[in-house]
Each structure stands twice: as structure tokens, then as C-alpha cells.
Specification:
The complex is a heterodimer of chains A (305) and B (828).
Chain A (H helix, E strand, L loop, with lengths): L1 E25 L9 E11 L4 E6 L5 E7 L3 E15 L12 H8 L8 H6 L13 H6 L10 H15 L1 E2 L10 H7 L1 E2 L1 H13 L5 E8 L16 E9 L3 E5 L11 E7 L2 H4 L2 E7 L6 E8 L11
Parallel strand pairs in A: 6-7
Antiparallel strand pairs in A: 1-4, 1-5, 1-12, 1-13, 2-5, 3-4, 8-9, 8-11, 9-10
Chain B lengths: L29 H9 L2 H18 L2 E3 L8 E3 L7 E3 L1 H25 L4 H4 L5 H5 L21 E8 L5 E7 L6 H14 L1 H6 L6 H14 L10 E4 L8 H11 L3 E2 L4 E4 L2 E6 L2 E4 L2 E4 L22 H6 L4 E3 L16 H9 L10 E3 L3 H9 L4 E5 L9 E2 L5 H13 L4 E5 L4 E7 L2 E16 L2 E4 L4 E4 L15 E7 L29 H32 L5 H13 L11 H10 L7 H14 L6 H16 L7 H24 L5 H27 L6 H10 L3 H8 L5 H10 L7 H19 L5 H11 L12 H34 L6 E6 L1
Parallel strand pairs in B: 3-21, 6-7, 6-11, 11-12
Antiparallel strand pairs in B: 1-2, 4-5, 4-18, 8-9, 9-10, 13-16, 14-15, 14-16, 17-18, 18-19, 18-20, 20-21
Helix pairs in contact in B: 6-9, 14-15, 14-17, 14-19, 14-20, 15-21, 17-18, 18-19, 20-24, 20-26, 24-25, 25-26
Classes of the chains: A alpha+beta (305), B alpha+beta (828).
Chain lengths: 305, 828
């Protein structure tokens, strides 16, 4: 089983005043992993950057560094991807070890660590967007009853967030603190992913933030529209026996053929699709359009009103 | 001084630096003790006064917290140095150097192969869980291979006489500058004793620091490396030290916005363009250094700095991310690591520490929690250290619960025993608890330890905490020379004619901009003070000159100095104009702006100049509305004018005439020209042009009363007054004088930076020069003709005032435009 998609991620800044100097970091190319292959990747940037360097960041994600040293009034960054997704084996949650054991396996004991555990340990602690508080321990208390298999507990947590939280794009911004999300019970995929990560890390578990795309289906009888999609985020948790396992609390699913992975890190701040510092510019709001099209289909431009 | 020890009994439970267990003075303290015994109370009082004066004069301060109103606290320095014998110092120095080498190796490992983590010698919790472990720095090898260029360690002496490590400072160790300042003051306070005891010098530490940075800085073959000192700015608690160190080391003191990264290379923005920076001695915390890759909410850093470091184009000292080693949780792991890496034992013991991340250790710590000090393992935690003995049962239970929820984030420590040292307080010798911070610096052949350090003193007797933030003081630390090691005289590289520098090559644009505004505000305060004095003196004076007062008031209103009549009685309006907190044109508001810009350029002002500014600030602060009456206010204005003219004297004679000075003077000229032109235009439009008393105040406003009197020895009349205030090229307060000086300065800038010519200004200068005051004599067209001439003159002056304002804007655009704020962008 496999699926193939074309993805277009188009970011457009129109600045109020000229920007004299800018640096941008783009996490817009998918990383290769066991269940995913990127066949075509392009990154079109306008104006032409003064410098551009493509490399891997410290978490192994493709990263493009862009610098603009001439005044410009707009910036367009367009990623065009052709990605193939392979089915991942389904895991039996009951086969996973008790969550306490998973946590203990990552805790310091003075014994040498395997490369895998050392790698997982990167994702166990506070990070810029994920502060650890008691509230997160409390919130997930009923999901992690003593001795419960880890993946079962994580599944329960995913369901709980899906059930109790409302998707609301107006409720939060990039910088909204997690405690506020928890209190309001509203947010977007990024908030739900951060919240779930906070709940897991508060219990000493390793959890990472995955940035990517999700195939959406147009309403029945209507064509697939350009720009109808958005970037997406979910969570991956480390299980000592099964390795990393993905969970999408926004949709209450375990990602399979419809999730396209871009990058992973400790939280959004490690893998923001496009982030930068500009000199000048005045006020600015990016216009972002994402289009995910299954191979063989065609997306059409929406009608202008 | 009889009975020195009356208030200084032996301290049986703590080690006493000066007294042994039986209360006898330790041998290495003998000379100091005898010196004090021989001194009369008056002599000691004199020494104390000398010390206090030096602190005040040098402007040594410590900001307790960020307060925009500027409450710098004077540095607290005790008269008596702490003495360490040569023999004892050898042990301390060897231990500190060893520890610095170890911590440097640990940094190299955790930002490199992470073998210590894989081997279980270091917990991942303490490294990856620390907010100063910077993932983007992983894999970066600094140029020169050193991570820890400067290091400090906090030591406490236990009752058994041994020194124990209680904390490591690896990020941006502070206090070395204060130690040097303390030394300069105390060595002058006891000059003979200082020589006699052969105290080891501190200067080699700073020389080594400079050499290391210069040598390790990456550069092209033909470049002389530029090293800058990066400060978070004047609100930092140790800003004084940044200033002091920058001056002592000869590094430009810069803020993040003075720097820019282009093509992975760091530059300083100077008036003459971008200049490459090869090394940065930073006093800015790890995660604030680069808003692009580190803390994105930091406004203090330099976007792209990390990439410049990664590409090996700039040295940052200490290496970014070095703060991770400041976690107290690490103390217990270091002995094993030292053994593993170097096969030896640590020479300096650390205080007993329980990192709660290991289950058995956690249980031990909880068992004796009441005797321990509990600290956060990471600076990002909002947890204030707590002494177990300060808590009741409920408090302990609460703390236990908190620790159990995330054990790896807590560290328990034995409560440090502090030794006692004599201090001089209230004319008596007393004992206080002390701790010592010792510094080491990397050199080509290992770490060198500063022979001395910052001794910190607890605020009260019996207190067990020494910290500058909590009101403690400091001491100079005298390490006595052994027989062999005499303090070497500093030997700087001899400079020849090729090294002669005639122009400061690193003048940051921000400094220039602030000098420009410093000039403008200084002059504006001067003008305002004169105008208010004119009004106030006419108002409280008993000479009956209603016309003079009325026209002066009218002018003050027209110039926006005095609030409108609806705002209250004249007296109330005058108070607002002088002291109004909310009136943005008030004298007080402008004095505040003057102080603010001055503090931005403090590094460029001489000590005397700075003192004059402090004086102005003090004066302004003493004035409170409810206390002052109009007579006092008038007196204040007179004193203020004196201080302000001192400032203008400093501007003329105390500063090197570099580009920064040129901008300061341009600022002053523009401001004065604008004020004069608008004030005289307003005067000419009014009804009092022939009124003697009014002309009198006009002269006063133009600071030309004396000149007029000596020239004419008669009551003022319109034509000679106008000549003196407008056309006299010799009068430094005349409008034409300002125009000609401005022209000269702008020509100079034009030659240097290729700025465009100021045609409007030249045109106006010519028109002013051609003004013929004779047309006012000639009554050919009677009074109407005279009015027309006056109107013409006033229009010309208004055009001059406007041109001055536009010139200011154009200069800002041309020279300061890249002093712009950067902002973050993020998109999903």
C-alpha cells in the first residue's frame, strides 16, 4: 500500500515598508524516512536571495537558510513537492511496556545509554514552546493509570484531547501559552500537539513534534481547490520496544497514508516552516496557501468573489 | 587605634580569616593589623572618606533592578582587604585552573560527541533539560578550540579552613571588572601597606584575556582583529562593569543592534560603514544572543550570529551554550569525569550536593530536607532557592511534593559554612561572613588564575548569604607574594609610530546618533532654562514692567513651553512647564531625555563630564512641587544654568574632535539656531520691539547681556540687539555664527562621507548676511515701513528655523537610518 501526492506550499509576505535586510530559515522540504520518499522537491524564492544554503539541521531535517541583503517589499517562498508514502505496520498497543517502565528506561541510572535512548532523550524535557507544569500531569492522570501499556495510554490521551478540545483558528496565536490553551479548551493542531507533548514529557516520556501536511477531502461533488489545505502538526512518542509511534490528536488518528511528514523537533520553534528576522518592513501578515493533491488529480483555482 | 578587637570576638563555629582559634592574629595579617593599630581614628576616618569619594567619583554602581528612572546603587566596598597567603593561594589557583580545564572539556564533549552522556557519566536530564543547552550549537567547534575562555568559581571556606566550591560560573562570569576597580581604590587607600605586603597584581589576568581573544579570533592574514564587548545594555545590573572592562581592555562596548551579520560575517555598524568584528566578548546570556536561531523573543541579540560562529567567521567568548554547566546538579558528577578524562582527582572539593534525578539520591535528600538548601537545577524554573530550616512542616511537605513531581529539576545542597573576615563599619572592626569568587582565563598554555578576586561580604553580621543583589558588600582580595613570585609590572607591547591612531575607527552609528541627540537635548535644556528664568524672574521680581512680562509669556506660549491659559493660573502653568510629569515639553521631561541620551554614550564622556551630568540629575530630583516655592525654583534655574554651561564647556574642550564630537556639536548648533530663530521671530512679530525691558530679556535669552553691556554701556535698543543676536559672526550665540559653524561641520562630513551639500542652508546664510539693519533707521516710510522690514526679517528667521529642523531629519536619514529595529516573522 502506498500513496503519492503533489504538495504546493506557498508563503507570501507583502511588507508595509521596504525590508532592508532579512534572514529566513525554511523547513519546507520533507525529510526522508522509512515510510516516505520525496521524489521531487523545489523551493522557489523571490526576490532571489543574496545567499542560500541547503543543509540538515541538528534533528536531521532539511533546512534552507536564506539571506536577503537588498531592499525588498515582498517575499514569496514556494515549495513544490512530489512525495510517496508507504504504509506503516500497525502496532498492537497492548504489546507495549507499562508507561512507567518506558519512563524509567529513559531516566538516569548511571548505566551507559544506547544511541536510540540518547536520541530519544532529546525530546523528554522542556523546550521553548513546551513548559512543563503540574496541570499537564493532572490532565492526563486518567489516561495513564498505573501499569497501563504505554501506547494504550497515549491513545487514550489523544482521544481525550480530541474529545474535549474544539478546533478554533481564532482562539490562539503562535505564542499563546499552553496553559491558556488548556484552560480555554480551544486551539489549532499546533496547540493540541504541544499540549499532548507536554502531558507526555511531564511523565518523563519522550515525545516530539512533527510538522507536515494532511490530505483533506473536498465536500462531496466539489472540485479540489488550490490553497484549501494548511500545514499540519502531530505528535510522535518513543516506545522502548516499538520505536517512535505517531499520533494525531487533532483528528484522533494514527497517521498513515494521508499524513506527509516534513520535519520533527522538540516543538514548533524547531521546525517552523518559515521563520525569520527582518529589518524594517512595518506590519506584515503572511498569506499562506497549501495544496495537497493526490497523484492523478487536479486542483482548480477557487473562483474569486 | 586602641582595642581593635573589642567588637570582633573569635568565632568558634566558623573559620576566621584574620584570627586563629585562640583569637591571635594570623601571621599573614600581622602587618595590616599593626598598621590599623598605629592609625588614629581620624586617620582611618580619612581613609574611609577617600574610599567613599573614589567610588562616587568613578561612578561605580550596581543596578539592583532595572529602573528606567535610574536608581544605580553605589558599589559597596569595605575598607579592609581580605588577605590570602602566598602558600595558600597556590593550592587555590591550581584547583581553579584544573577545574576550568575540566569544564572546558565537558563543554567540548556535550557540544561534540556526547560520549559522557552515552557512558552514563552525565545525566541527559541535566544537559538536554537545561535551557542553556543550545541544540543549534551542537557540532560547532569554536575557532581556537576553546569553549570556556573565562571562568569563575564561587568558593566558601569551611570551619576546617578548606575552601569548597559552591558554584561554577561558565556563561558570562561577572565581577572581574569590579575586582579590578576594588583593587584600584583600596591600593590607593593603603598605598604604603600595599607596597610593603607585595600584593600580587591583577593586570596579567586582563592582559591574558585580551591576548587569548586576539589570538584565537579568526581573520584574514592582513587583518588586525577587532574584538568588541557585547552588553545587554545599561539596565543590566553589572553595566558599570561592562563599561569599565571595555575601557580597560580597549574593546568597543556595543549592543546587539550595533552589530549586523552579512554573509555569515559579523560587522559593527559605524559611521564610516560596516567594519568586520572578529571576536565578541559577550555579557549577554546564551539564549539571547541570536533571535534567528535561539530565543526568538530576544531583542538584545544579533540575528545570524550563530551562523557566523558556525562558519568559523567569528569567535564568541564564552562559546554559546556554555551556561549549561552552571547547573548546581553537575557538582556531584565532576569528580568521576575528571578521573575518566584526566586520570586525576579534583583538587578543590565541592560542597555536598544531592541531584534529585536519581531515585536513591532523591530519597536521601528528602530525608534530611530540613537541613538542606533546595535549588532549581535550571535557570528557566520559577523556583526561588529555599532553606529547609526556614520551612515549617507544611512547607517541607509542599516542597517535597514539588520535588517529587519532577525530581530531576531540583538540587539539594548542604548549607555552606561561611568564614568570617574583619570589616570596617561605623568606625569599628567587626566580623562578617564572606565568600570569594575567583577567576581563570584560557591562555596558550593552559588556564591562568587571577591572583585575587572578588570577596563578597554578607549584609549583616550572622547572615549566611553573600550576594550583591541582597544588599551585601565586597572587599578587595590581596594575595600576598611568596618569595619567588613578585608582582610583575605590566609590560604592554611597545607602540611605534605605525600604531598611531588618529581617528576612532569603531564609532558605532548608535553612539553617534545618541551624541547628536545628547547635543540637542543639552542645548534644548539650556534654552528652556533661560526662557523659564526670563519669565519667572519677571514674574516674581518687583520691577514693574508689564509689557516685558506679557511678551515673554506670549513667546513661551508660542514656543510651546508654557501650557495654554485654560490649564490654570499662571503659577500653576509655570510649575507644569518646569516640573510637569505629564507635560512632554516640561524642563523636567527634557532633563530626563538628556540623561537618557547621556547614559547611552557614557563610555564616550569623561569622568568629569559625567559627574556634571549626575549633578544635574541630582538637582532635578531634589525638586518636588510641594516643597518648592517660586523663589526656590528661580534659584534652581540659576544653578541649573551653571551646570548646563559646564556641559557646554566639556563639549568644547574636553572631547576629542572626532566624528562623534562633530555630531554632538551639530546637534547643539541645530538646536540653538532653531530656538534663536523662532524666539527672535516671535519677538519681532510682537508689540514690544522697542521696549527696553523686553529687549533686556531678549539679550538674556540669547546669553549676550554681558557683551552688549560692555560694548554699548547703555540700555538695550533694537538695532544693536539684533546685530548682536543675529549678525555678529564673533558672538557664539548669534544666529549667523550657528549657520557658519554648521556649514563648516557639514562640509567636513561631506568630504568624509560624501553627503550632499546643504543648499537651502547656504542660501539662508547668504540672505541673513545681507540683512541691512539700516533699513530700520530710515523712517522714510514711517512706522509702516519699519513694520514691513521687521516682518520680512521675522519671515526669514522662521525659514531658518524650519531649515534647521529639516537638516536634522536629513542627517538622521543619511547617517542613522540603519539604526533600525528588527522584528521576527513566522509563518506556518
Amino acid at each position: 500500500m502506498s500513496a503519492r501526492y503533489q504538495v504546493i506550499h506557498d508563503t507570501h509576505y507583502q511588507y508595509a515598508t521596504a525590508v532592508s535586510l532579512a534572514k529566513q530559515l525554511a523547513h519546507l522540504w520533507p525529510r526522508d524516512c522509512a515510510w516516505q520518499r520525496c521524489i521531487v522537491r523545489e523551493l522557489n524564492v523571490e526576490p532571489a536571495p543574496t545567499q542560500r544554503r541547503d543543509e540538515l539541521d541538528i534533528f536531521g531535517n532539511p533546512l534552507t537558510r536564506l539571506a536577503f541583503e537588498r531592499p525588498h517589499e515582498a517575499l514569496r517562498v514556494e515549495a513544490r513537492l512530489d512525495v510517496e508514502i508507504l504504509a506503516r505496520p500497525l502496532l498492537d498497543p497492548l504489546q507495549s511496556p507499562p508507561w512507567e517502565d518506558a519512563s524509567a528506561a529513559l531516566s538516569y541510572s548511571g548505566a551507559p545509554l544506547s544511541a536510540e535512548v540518547l536520541e530519544a532523550s532529546r525530546f523528554r524535557f522542556e523546550s521553548p514552546a513546551v513548559r512543563l507544569k503540574y496541570s499537564f500531569v493532572d490532565y492526563a492522570e486518567d489516561c495513564f493509570t498505573p501499569g497501563r501499556p504505554l501506547l494504550q495510554g497515549v491513545q487514550a490521551l489523544m482521544q481525550k484531547i480530541f474529545r474535549e478540545f474544539t478546533f478554533d483558528a481564532t482562539a490562539t496565536q503562535v505564542a499563546t501559552p499552553l496553559l491558556e490553551v488548556l484552560e480555554k479548551r480551544r486551539g489549532v493542531c499546533q496547540d493540541f500537539a504541544h499540549l499532548m507533548i507536554a502531558c507526555l514529557r511531564s511523565r518523563g516520556l519522550a515525545a516530539r513534534y512533527v510538522s507536515g501536511y494532511l490530505l483533506t477531502q473536498p465536500p462531496p461533488g466539489q472540485p479540489r481547490l488550490i490553497g484549501a489545505d494548511a500545514s499540519h502538526a502531530w505528535v510522535s512518542v518513543y516506545c522502548p520496544r516499538q520505536g517512535w509511534v505517531d499520533f494525531d490528536p487533532t483528528n484522533n488518528v494514527q497517521p498513515g497514508l494521508e499524513h506527509i511528514t516534513l520535519a520533527w523537533g522538540r516543538d514548533f520553534s524547531d521546525v517552523s516552516p518559515l521563520r525569520g528576522v527582518i529589518l524594517g518592513g512595518g506590519s506584515h501578515d503572511p498569506d499562506v496557501q497549501v495544496t495537497v493533491t493526490p497523484a492523478g488529480e487536479v486542483a482548480v483555482a477557487p473562483e474569486r468573489e | 587605634m586602641p582595642d581593635l578587637l573589642a567588637d570582633c570576638p573569635p568565632t568558634p563555629r566558623a573559620y576566621h580569616e584574620m584570627l586563629d582559634a585562640s583569637g591571635r592574629v594570623r601571621p599573614h595579617w600581622d602587618k595590616l593589623y599593626q598598621h590599623l593599630e598605629r592609625s588614629s581614628p581620624a586617620q582611618l576616618e580619612q581613609r574611609q572618606a577617600l574610599l567613599d569619594r573614589q567610588i562616587l567619583e568613578n561612578g561605580v554602581t550596581y543596578n539592583v533592578y532595572a529602573d528606567p528612572k535610574g536608581t544605580d546603587r553605589p558599589w559597596a566596598l569595605d575598607l579592609l582587604p581580605n588577605l590570602i597567603s602566598a602558600e595558600e593561594w597556590q593550592g587555590i589557583a591550581a584547583g581553579v585552573a584544573q577545574r576550568a580545564r575540566l569544564l572546558d572539556s565537558v563543554l567540548a564533549d556535550i557540544y561534540g560527541p556526547q560520549q559522557l552522556l552515552a557512558d552514563g557519566l552525565l545525566p541527559t536530564e541535566l544537559v538536554f533539560g537545561h535551557n542553556n543547552f543550545l541544540w543549534p550549537c551542537q557540532g560547532i567547534r569554536p575557532p581556537g578550540g576553546t569553549y570556556l575562555h573565562s571562568y569563575a568559581v564561587d568558593l566558601r571556606r569551611a570551619p576546617d579552613g578548606r575552601w569548597w566550591v559552591i558554584a561554577d560560573r561558565t556563561q558570562t562570569p561577572s565581577g572581574a571588572g569590579y575586582a579590578l576597580e576594588n583593587r584600584q581604590i583600596i591600593s590607593r587607600t593603603f598605598p604604603d601597606l600595599f607596597r610593603e605586603l607585595r600584593v600580587q597584581h591583577l593586570s596579567s589576568y586582563f592582559r591574558t584575556l585580551r591576548e587569548t581573544l586576539v589570538q584565537q579570533a579568526p581573520r584574514e592574514d592582513n587583518e588586525t582583529p577587532m574584538v568588541v564587548l557585547l552588553t545587554p545594555g545599561r539596565f543590566n545590573e553589572t553595566y558599570f562593569e561592562h563599561l569599565y572592562l571595555a575601557r580597560h581592555l580597549g574593546f568597543p562596548l556595543v549592543e546587539g543592534s550595533d552589530l549586523t551579520v552579512r554573509n555569515a560575517t559579523l560587522y559593527l555598524k559605524t559611521l564610516g560603514g560596516l567594519q568586520r568584528v572578529h571576536a565578541v566578548l559577550r555579557r549577554l546570556d546564551d539564549d539571547f544572543c541570536d533571535p534567528l536561531e535561539l530565543r526568538t523573543d530576544s531583542a538584545l541579540g544579533v540575528p545570524g550570529l550563530l551562523e557566523a560562529v558556525r562558519q568559523g567567521r567569528v569567535l564568541v567568548a564564552n562559546a554559546l551554550g556554555s551556561g549549561v554547566l552552571e547547573s548546581p546538579g553537575l557538582l556531584g558528577f565532576l569528580p568521576k569525569i575528571q578521573e575518566k578524562l584526566f586520570g586525576e582527582e579534583l583538587l578543590l572539593p565541592s560542597i555536598a550536593t544531592w541531584w534529585c534525578g536519581e531515585a536513591p539520591v532523591l530519597e536521601q535528600a528528602l530525608e534530611k530536607l530540613a537541613d538542606l538548601l533546595v535549588m532549581p537545577a535550571f535557570p528557566s524554573q520559577s523556583f526561588v532557592p529555599q532553606f529547609g530550616h526556614d520551612l515549617d512542616a507544611a512547607g517541607l511537605a509542599n516542597l517535597t511534593r514539588r520535588i517529587r513531581a519532577r525530581p530531576y529539576a531540583y538540587v539539594a545542597q548542604e548549607v555552606a559554612q561561611l568564614s568570617q573576615a574583619p570589616v570596617w563599619q561605623d568606625e569599628h572592626m567587626q566580623s562578617r561572613a564572606i565568600g570569594m569568587r575567583v577567576y581563570a582565563v584560557a591562555s596558550a598554555d593552559g588556564y591562568r588564575v587571577m591572583p585575587g578576586g572578588l570577596t563578597r561580604v554578607s549584609a549583616e553580621s550572622g547572615a549566611q548569604v553573600v550576594a550583591m543583589q541582597s544588599g551585601g558588600g565586597s572587599k578587595d582580595t590581596w594575595v600576598l607574594a611568596g618569595h619567588a613570585a613578585l608582582g610583575e609590572a605590566p609590560r604592554p607591547r611597545p607602540l611605534g609610530v605605525h600604531d598611531v591612531v588618529r581617528r576612532d575607527p569603531h564609532l558605532p552609528s548608535r553612539i553617534v546618533e545618541n551624541l547628536f541627540w545628547f547635543g540637542r537635548y543639552a542645548e534644548r535644556c539650556d534654552d528652556l532654562t533661560r526662557l523659564l528664568r526670563v519669565v519667572l524672574s519677571r514674574y516674581v521680581g518687583d520691577d514693574d514692567e508689564p509689557m516685558a512680562l506679557a511678551t515673554a509669556l506670549q513667546l513661551a506660549e508660542d514656543l510651546g513651553v508654557l501650557p495654554d491659559e485654560e490649564e490654570g493660573t499662571l503659577e500653576e502653568r509655570l510649575f507644569v512647564a518646569l516640573l510637569g510629569e505629564d507635560w512632554i515639553y516640561s524642563l523636567r521631561a527634557n532633563l530626563q531625555r538628556l540623561n537618557w541620551t547621556a547614559s547611552q554614550v557614557r563610555g564616550r564622556l569623561s569622568r568629569e563630564n559625567w559627574l556634571a551630568l549626575m549633578e544635574i540629575q541630582r538637582e532635578a530630583q531634589t525638586l518636588e512641587r510641594e516643597e518648592a516655592d517660586l523663589g526656590e525654583l528661580l534659584d534652581f534655574l540659576n544653578r541649573l544654568l551653571m551646570s548646563l554651561s559646564a556641559l557646554s564647556g566639556f563639549a568644547l574642550d574636553d572631547m576629542t574632535r572626532d566624528d562623534g564630537w562633530r555630531f554632538l556639536m551639530i546637534g547643539r548648533r541645530i538646536e540653538r539656531l532653531q530656538f534663536l530663530a523662532e524666539a527672535i521671530a516671535g519677538f519681532l512679530d510682537g508689540e514690544a520691539v522697542q521696549d527696553q525691558a523686553a529687549l533686556e530679556w531678549l539679550l538674556e535669552l540669547g546669553n549676550s547681556t554681558i557683551t552688549y553691556r560692555s560694548r554699548y554701556q547703555a540700555a538695550p535698543q533694537l538695532i544693536p540687539v539684533l546685530d548682536l543676536l543675529l549678525l555678529d559672526e564673533q558672538n557664539p550665540h548669534a544666529a549667523l555664527f550657528q549657520l557658519l559653524e554648521l556649514e563648516k561641520a557639514l562640509d567636513h562630513l561631506g568630504e568624509q562621507f560624501g553627503s550632499q551639500n546643504e543648499l537651502t542652508l547656504a542660501l539662508l546664510t547668504d540672505r541673513l548676511r545681507l540683512v541691512d539693519l539700516g533699513t530700520l533707521e530710515n523712517a522714510l516710510f514711517g512706522e509702516a515701513g519699519k513694520r514691513a522690514v521687521l516682518n520680512g526679517l521675522s519671515q526669514l528667521l522662521r525659514a531658518v528655523g524650519e531649515a534647521a529642523g529639516q537638516l536634522s531629519d536629513r542627517l538622521a536619514l543619511r547617517f542613522f537610518a540603519h539604526v533600525d529595529a528588527s522584528q521576527q516573522t513566522v509563518s506556518s
